[in-house]
Automatic annotation (TrEMBL):
Keyword GTP-binding: no
Species lineage: Bacteria, Bacillati, Actinomycetota, Coriobacteriia, Eggerthellales
The family this protein is said to belong to: Belongs to the DtxR/MntR family.
Natural source organism: Gordonibacter faecis
Subcellular location: Cytoplasm
Any coiled-coil regions, as ranges: none
Keyword vocabulary terms for this entry: Activator, Cytoplasm, DNA-binding, Manganese, Repressor, Transcription, Transcription regulation
Protein's UniProt name: Manganese transport regulator
Length: 125
């Protein structure tokens, strides 16, 4: 399963796990719930779905990304940072830029995203 076929919610969960693990080295359900502002039962259900899709696995209470999950999370985070920078450089305040980048990261196809990044001279992967 590639990031292209994931839903917005799944991409957000993968991105959250990726970011939390980078910051703390470990990621627990409670960390994801706090990061995304959702309930712990919602996290449990989402992680079950992501595990069934082969994108995450649990090691005790530590949530880890599979190789495929990490690729999807990295792609989503790349898009988020791209749009966040674009908005911030355009004069949008940081909080609004981050919130709106979170929505924008999901709405373009991979091809359109790459073409936009190239057009703006910001490359991409």
């Amino acid at each position: 399963m590639t990031a292209h076929f994931l839903g917005e919610s799944s991409e957000d969960y993968l991105e959250a796990i990726f970011v939390i693990r980078r910051l703390r080295g470990v990621c627990r359900n409670v960390d994801i719930a706090a990061h995304l502002g959702v309930s712990k039962p919602s996290v449990t259900k989402a992680l079950s779905n992501l595990a069934a899709a082969g994108l995450v696995w649990m090691c005790g209470h530590d949530v880890r990304l599979t190789e495929e999950g990490e690729r999807a999370a990295s792609t989503t985070l790349e898009r988020h940072r791209f749009f966040e920078r674009l908005l911030a450089e355009s004069g949008v305040d940081a909080r609004t830029a981050s919130a709106e980048a979170c929505r924008m990261e999901h709405c373009l196809s991979e091809e359109s995203f790459r073409k936009l990044a190239e057009h703006l001279g910001r490359g991409g992967r």
